[in-house]
Amino acid sequence: xxxxxxxxxxxxxxxxxxxxxxxxxxxxxxxxxxxxxxxxxxxxxxxxxxxxxxxxxxxxxxxxxxxxxxxxxxxxxxxxxxxxxxxxxxxxxxxxxxxxxxxxxxxxxxxxxxxxxxxxxxxxxxxxxxxxxxxxxxxxxxxxxxxxxxxxxxxxxxxxxxxxxxxxxxxxxxxxxxxxxxxxxxxxxxxxxxxxxxxxxxxxxxxxxxxxxxxxxxxxxxxxxxxxxxxxxxxxxxxxxxxxxxxxxxxxxxxxxxxxxxxxxxxxxxxxxxxxxxxxxxxxxxxxxxxxxxxxxxxxxxxxx
Length: 305
Known about the structure:
This protein is mainly beta and 305 residues long. It is 0% helix and 56% strand. The protein is globular, with a radius of gyration of 18 Å.
């Protein structure tokens, strides 16, 4: 029988469930989980390859990256990377997958067309969040235990700069205009706003133990998941002030803005749920169960076509 593609109402959020080695596929418009996919052991990070129709999932305990076909929602294969894979990101051309070695001071560059071709290069201590600049020329690495961000030339894989930030930098995201890197400093309870060209920075206060950040499409608001406060801070980026604190599930981690439905999607590690926040009213409208220890570290929403 020929396979018939399934249609989706909205974008798809890929929720890594670290506690049961699966990924939940959440249709953000229907507000329901459509698939649960078995991956490697202790999945954490997500990287979306739109052109390839692939989703890459880092598996910390099996030291692999699982590759999911985003059309069939089935795992295609696993890529052995031989490091404790947590942070993960793709180059803009989708030719290179970057995998942070949580247990070391390095990042692995994987050729997505030939995954056996891998190169290791230097990072700081306990590399965590990864993000590639919009022009594909720089890779930014948040180094949790050296309290800085490494900037790497993606052509040579050499360090360009090592920039001090707050205590325990973890997650990264980019402003819609691609000029500002947002760095979540877990222990400092701050965000560092870093100019991607000049490396000049400023600091904004968050809630307790921030773990993730996402920016509204108009660049006005930052949404920060506060892991120890079980909340999301809504920060006015024009003045750095928190205008609202939204109660979500226990120990929220991954967070991303869904532009199609104007919702903020939050993975709650402690309550095994996903909170959907209406970005117009800044209120939680739906709480959706997801198997165990939800994380979704990185950019985890596949935009609808």
